[in-house]
Amino acid sequence: MTRNILVERRGAVLEVTINRPKANAIDMETSRELGETFLAFRDDPELRVAIITGAGEKFFCPGWDLKAAAEGEAPDADYGPGGFGGLQELPRMNKPVIAAVNGICCGGGLELALSADIILAAEHASFALPEIRSGTVADAATLKLPKRVPYHVAMELLLTGRWFDVDEAQRFGLVNRILPAAELMEAARALADELASGPPLVFAAIKEIAREAEDMKFQDGMNRITRAQFPTVETLYASEDQKEGARAFAEKRDPVWKGR
Fold it and tell me: Which of 111, 123, 183, 244 does the annotation list as catalytic?
């Protein structure tokens, strides 16, 4: 049972909402709940896509609960499966995750959003990595951000901790789409439904290749594919879905994906 998050299963889509008034900050308990939830999502064959968002209209997530930190919670505590926020270190997460950023998204909250595959944001959303002001390092963002945006942009944001709005985030390439707040979840659900109707084994292969080959040279990555060193690719190539895709194309009809 979860205390700090809301979980709703909608067909093949799982909606996860951080629900900790007033700001949706994440303490150790919340992180563990998120980790267990995303672990169950990963391992449930009936679920294909997840949405992560925050309750209310002001905060997506400000990251680590500094009140909990002031009371002694350590930055290197056991935050459960997937590490802080439940996503960024969860192994074999081969299903699409959409972040619907509904407000302030900073610190570990931005790191959580960066762990998603697609980021939709409300027009009033704002972002920052202000860890320097609390005497700590945005460790996951320091690893991820220079790979998502130009190096000098990443370093400015990390070293200054300054705030930036949703338009600037989109210019950096951090946000896929900007939406009016009232339309954010509708758009996230429509996108999730579109992905849920797609080929899950193909999505799994895309995610594994992109994740595992991120730091490889192109030819090294291709060699791993041709030498059958990506399990999801081998599963795909031996699957009913792969044959169904070819048949559906030849027969000029929509494929029926079974995930096997």
Answer: 111
CB 64 within 8 A of CB 26: yes
Annotation marks residue 131 as catalytic: yes
Tokens 């093949």 found at = 12
Q: Are strands 118-122 and 164-165 parallel, antiparallel or unpaired?
A: unpaired
**0.90 exceeded by the pTM?**
yes
Domain spans in the chain, listed from the N-terminal domain onward? 5-196, 200-250
Please pick, among 46, 57, 71, 131, the residue that the annotation labels catalytic: 131
Q: How confident is the prediction along the chain (260 residues), in pLDDT tens digits per residue?
A: 579 999 999 999 999 999 999 899 999 999 999 999 999 999 999 999 999 999 999 999 999 887 877 777 777 778 899 999 999 999 999 999 999 999 999 999 999 999 999 999 999 999 999 999 888 889 999 999 999 999 999 999 999 999 999 999 999 999 999 999 999 999 999 999 999 999 999 999 999 999 998 888 999 889 988 888 889 999 999 999 999 888 989 988 989 998 89
What is the token pair recorded at 40? 């169950």
Q: CATH number for the 5-196 domain, one of 2.60.40.10, 3.30.870.10, 3.90.1170.30, 3.90.226.10?
A: 3.90.226.10
- Is 15 in the active site? no
Q: How many CA atoms lie within 13 A of 124 on its CB side?
A: 12
